[in-house]
Write a structure and sequence with these properties.
The complex is a heterodimer of chains A (about 600) and B (about 170). Chain A has about 600 residues and is α/β, with parallel strands linked by helices. Helices cover about 20% and strands about 30% of the residues of chain A. In chain A, the strands form six sheets. In chain A, strands 1-2-3-4-5-7-10-12-14-15-16-17-18-19 form a 14-stranded mixed beta sheet, covered by helices on one side. The chains are: A alpha/beta (about 600), B mainly alpha (about 170).
């Protein structure tokens, strides 16, 4: 049994559905059944979709078609909406003045509320008498001037929504004075959208003074304006995008009289990167900070970059930089996370500029996280990666308030042994895949030692994972407040390794060459992992009297072990053996020497 | 029978709705108030306790979860600052219509009409219009469940009368 849906569906809904169809399709339903014969005549919308059926026809055909429709419409059913859509560029729409006259002569008697046209060149004078019009959306031939809309004699008293596409907003008839407010004759306007519009170049100030405006969108606006003066006390949502070449400074945006702003989105495009642009927009953002949500996007064509700031209404600020083409991003998320990907030299400079210039917005960050992991593209490191670390890290030094810093990335990130970090308030430092090296490769006899993080004297937690040490013999970690220390060493080379390896030297001096000295009087937890095949190394815990837990792991993969060394050279940490083979113990010994002995190769298997 | 549920609700007030087939739905008050029909039930009836069961005679329980989901999501979309991206709303709407037969769509239109919520009704009628756009007469008849009560001669005459509309139209 089939449900007779026809009997269920009220006429009003059928008319509603038919009103949403192009008029030709709606008329077509007259052959469905006897009851449907006149349904279409009750539609409240004339949706004239000029598709392939109207193409290649003469204007009279269309005129006749519309006249047929208008004549057959039910006399008691008002025509509320007229939509004109066209599929074809070659359509002769604008030549048919007669049609427009007929249409609006009819519509005047119908309490027309909405008129929408994709493409229209001229509107008959009868159109401007539509006092009932609430919504007007016009796509306009670019060369056409909207002088008729600007002229003060037109008043769409009921107009609430105005959307103009590709309109050339100008007024040939009136003298442009500096304080002329646009669209001021539409007193009840609540929504105003201007897309790809062009404002008469004589306007030096763009003034919008509309008491009831709630939503304002201005996109791809072409103008010669220096100041945008938007005085709209009820404005809640504002979206604005414009573009500049480097020769002209961005216009000033004055929105002081918009007290209840909720959502603001500003997009500014520049053809060239300039620091002033950024700071200029930053100051604009500051003045709009009373908005609940503020998103600002700066696009630069050269070098290609998009920078977006979002000020969410709980005061969080998001800095986002996106490289669309290559899908790399930079973000400072909620001020706590800075994530940089794919950088070339100029791009890094941009980021550094951002860091420099964002000082006002990023007010004393306490936590920063860099994630360089995505530098690895297609399994290869970005060629310019090394210098990022060298540059970015020192740049961060200006954040004296920084409490936590996390950096993750491929091995080529270097910390120079001579580099002073100077994060005086830093309490947490996590470095992943970093490397430390001395630049004095050539000088043979210099004792290559490094006081690591000696100037971060508030450090409480230090994690160095997949750490590489290059060209250094002694690593000193002196941290008076350190509580938690994790080091995992993946690579350690120093001068003389080559000789040592080849000549199988076993003298005392070589045994002591790789030394880690930790001097941390408050250290409670210490974890040490060795994933390299070092022959000898010493770990000295000096002045670590309150240690509670020590974990030492020797995580060398057996495969590597077998390949590189013959059985006679297998060593294992003596210490492992002496400490119940667990690697975890309570101890008060100030010195722990890790020596590799030949004895306990069985222990290795357990790892 | 509704009072059993009302005692526990101290945080979010709930309203019990009764679908046409007798099934009960507990709905948060703001969501229930999206429906003008429910709203007017309480407005017209100042004495009505909020824990009264609101009978929804024309809504089958089959569609209630989807309809309530629509209200919840769209009221959240409206409240959000900044407004949600158009794609997000579109994705939700598309998912909502997915797997809904023509018949189910019709029933939901009836429900939305009864519940008197403009937003849902507009959305569903637009979906219906999209489904019959550029479709043949037979297809549209089937869609609305219309029986052709014209004789072939009558139908030919109607077409002739409205020749200006049918002229050049592809019958597909």
């Amino acid at each position: 049994m089939t449900i007779d849906r026809l009997s269920n569906l009220p006429d009003a809904i059928i008319h509603e559905i038919l009103s949403l169809l192009p008029i030709r399709e709606a008329v077509k339903t007259c052959v469905l059944s006897k009851t449907w014969k006149y349904h279409w005549t009750h539609t409240h919308t004339l949706n004239l979709h000029l598709d392939k059926n109207f193409a290649y026809r003469n204007p009279e055909y269309l005129e006749n078609f519309v006249l047929h429709v208008l004549r057959r419409r039910h006399p008691l059913c008002n025509l509320n909406r007229i939509l004109l859509r066209y599929d074809h560029d070659y359509f002769i729409w604008n030549e048919s003045k007669q049609l427009m006259n007929n249409l609006f002569d009819y519509a005047l008697s119908q309490e027309l509320q909405e008129f929408e046209a994709d493409y229209v060149c001229d509107l008959p004078s009868s159109f401007f008498k539509c006092q009932t019009l609430k919504t007007l959306k016009l796509g306009l031939k670019y060369s056409f001037g909207m002088h008729t809309l600007l002229s003060k004699t037109i008043e769409f008293a009921s107009l609430k929504t105005l959307k103009l596409d590709h309109a050339n907003i100008s007024d040939k008839n009136i003298h442009i004075s500096s304080d002329q407010s646009l669209f001021s004759n539409f007193l009840n306007l609540e929504n105003l959208e201007l897309h790809d519009c062009c404002l008469d170049w004589r306007f030096k100030t763009f003034i919008i003074n509309l008491p009831r405006l709630v939503n304002l969108i201005v996109s791809c606006f072409r103008c010669n304006v220096d100041i945008f003066e938007i005085s709209t006390p009820r404005l809640k949502s504002f979206e604005f995008s414009d573009r500049y070449n480097s020769s002209r400074p961005p216009a000033v945006l004055n929105m002081d009289n918009c007290p209840i702003l909720e959502h603001v989105k500003l997009v500014t495009c520049f053809n060239k990167w300039k620091e002033e642009h950024l700071s200029h927009r930053m100051s604009t953002a500051k003045r709009l900070s009373h908005a609940k949500s503020l998103t600002m996007s700066l696009e630069f064509a050269e070098p290609w970059a998009i920078i977006t700031f979002t000020n969410a209404f709980d005061g969080e600020i998001k800095l986002e930089e996106q490289h669309k083409k290559q899908n790399y991003m930079l973000m400072i998320r909620q001020l706590k996370l800075l994530d940089i990907n794919l950088l070339n030299e100029s791009k890094v400079k941009n980021i550094l500029e951002i860091i420099d210039n964002s000082e006002d917005i990023i007010d004393k960050p306490e936590e920063i996280e860099f994630d360089f992991e995505r530098f690895i593209t297609h399994g290869e490191y970005h060629p310019n990666i090394g210098f990022v670390y060298d540059i970015v890290l020192p740049k961060l030094l200006k954040y004296e308030t920084l409490k936590a810093l996390t950096m993750k990335g491929p091995y080529s990130f270097r910390i120079l042994s001579s580099l002073s970090l100077g994060f005086k308030s830093l309490t947490t430092l996590k470095l992943s895949r970093a490397s430390i090296e001395s630049r004095n490769r050539k000088k043979k006899n210099i004792l290559r030692s490094c006081d690591l993080f000696f100037d971060c004297f508030n450090l409480e937690r230090l994690e160095l994972s997949e750490f590489r040490i290059e060209n250094l013999e002694t690593l000193n970690i002196k941290a008076p407040r350190l509580l938690h220390l994790t080091i995992s060493i993946y690579h350690w080379t120093c001068w003389g390794d080559y000789e040592h390896y080849h000549h199988q030297r076993d003298d005392q001096g070589a045994n002591d060459r790789k030394i880690v000295i930790i001097s941390a009087p408050r250290l409670k937890f210490f974890e040490f992992e060795l994933s390299i095949s070092v022959d000898t190394m010493q770990l000295r815990l000096e002045n670590c009297s309150v240690l509670e837990e020590v974990n030492i792991r020797y995580a060398l993969p057996l495969v590597v072990w077998r390949e590189r060394y013959n059985w006679n050279q297998r060593y294992i940490l003596d210490m492992m053996f002496t400490n119940d083979q667990s690697g975890s113990f309570n101890q008060h010994a100030p010195l722990l020497a890790l020596k590799f002995s030949k004895v306990i190769m069985y222990a290795i298997i357990r790892f | 029978m509704a009072s059993s549920s009302s005692s526990s609700s101290t945080q979010v007030k709930k309203i019990t709705l009764k679908a046409a087939d007798g099934k009960h739905f507990e709905v948060e008050e703001p969501v229930a108030m999206e429906m003008e029909t429910v709203k007017s039930f309480f407005v017209g009836n100042e004495d009505a306790m909020k824990d009264m069961v609101v009978p929804l005679l024309n809504v089958s329980s089959e569609h209630m979860p989807a309809i309530l989901d629509f209200y919840r999501n769209h009221s959240e979309f409206r409240k959000r600052t900044p407004p949600p991206p158009a794609e997000e709303v579109k994705a939700f709407n598309e998912a909502f219509l997915e797997n809904k037969s023509d018949e189910q769509l019709m029933e939901m239109i009836m429900a939305a009409n009864f519940l008197n919520t403009k937003e849902l009704l507009n959305f569903l009628t637009e979906a219906a219009a999209n489904r019959i756009k550029n479709k043949s007469v037979e297809y549209v008849r089937a869609f609305f469940g219309i029986e052709n009560d014209f004789t072939p001669e009558e139908e030919a005459r109607i077409r002739a009368e409205n020749e200006w509309a049918f002229d050049g139209l592809d019958e597909d």
